Amino acid sequence: MTNPKATAAIAVGPTQESVYVMCVQYRGDQFNGWQRQIDQPTVQGHIEAALSQVAAHPIRIAAAGRTDAGVHATGQIINFTTSAVRPLDAWLKGVNSLTPKSIQVAWVRQAPANFHPRYAATARRYNYVYYDRDRFNPFVDGLAWCTENLDQDAMHRAAQWFIGEHDFTTFRAAGCQSLSPKRRVNRCEVRRQGHFVVMEIDASAFLLHMVRNIASALCDVGMGAPTRSVRDLLLVKDRVRLGVTAPPQGLYLTHVSYPGADFPPSPEVPLLNAVS
């Protein structure tokens, strides 16, 4: 005679889990940073709460990078593992309906079991946006660094000193915990787009506050400092020699590179086409 309990155990078996990857966009000025905190609103906290509700079980996510408070993203990549079976559209619409309007999922895909958004990434791209005009615009508040009369051509020339592998001691935060101050920058360009000046920088990885400190040094060049001052700052390897760190509201994580991945292109910073 068959044991019904044994039959039930065989029928249930292990639960199969799937891995999903999402592209997330958010306004960082609405949250206390990316990383989950018990008593503060964060991007990770809101997304995990929404995913857990859609999945009907607790969900934890991993991200390509942890952005600071005030920093935005148009191309943050996350993943999560779940045993819940849902259509891709249900994950996207579910998260978008359950999170604040300042967080939106752009797309969702199923991913290989070994995919990790941080460790699989080969490069990250950031934009730093300056609103360069002689009067304040309330519609860019919290979304750009307001400046005046920047020389974007001089900034672009100075930005070329950052390309290649360098010791970025001058450009990292005092609290940076990275074991090495060396990083390789693949590309660093500055362009004007209407009343905006945009710095775009690509590297395999960045140090804490590295992009914002680079943005600060380039702003000094845009206001008249010699382009060689950037070279001098790299060589001196002394954080004290650099001025203030550029504010977080101008910084956007716009793209993360994964070789061979067939992911949709990351959206451009919407502000650049929405405000004159």
Topology (SSEs and partners):
Layout: H1 4-12, E1 18-26, H2 43-55, E2 61-63, E3 72-82, H3 88-98, E4 103-111, E5 123-132, E6 145-147, H4 152-159, E7 164-167, E8 182-193, E9 196-203, H5 210-222, H6 228-236, E10 251-257, H7 271-274
Parallel strand pairs: 3-10, 5-6
Antiparallel strand pairs: 1-3, 1-4, 2-3, 5-9, 5-10, 7-8, 8-9
Q: How would you describe this structure to a colleague?
A:
This protein has 276 residues and is of the alpha+beta class. The protein folds into two domains: 15-111, Alpha-Beta Plaits, CATH 3.30.70; 123-259, Alpha-Beta Plaits (2-Layer Sandwich). It has seven helices and ten strands. It has helices at residues 4-12, 43-55, 88-98, 152-159, 210-222, 228-236, 271-274; strands at residues 18-26, 61-63, 72-82, 103-111, 123-132, 145-147, 164-167, 182-193, 196-203, 251-257. Strands 1, 2, 3, 4, 5, 6, 7, 8, 9 and 10 form a ten-stranded mixed β-sheet that branches. β8 and β9 form a beta hairpin. α4 (152-159) packs across α5 (210-222). The chain is globular, with a radius of gyration of 22 Å. The chain starts with a helix and ends with a helix.
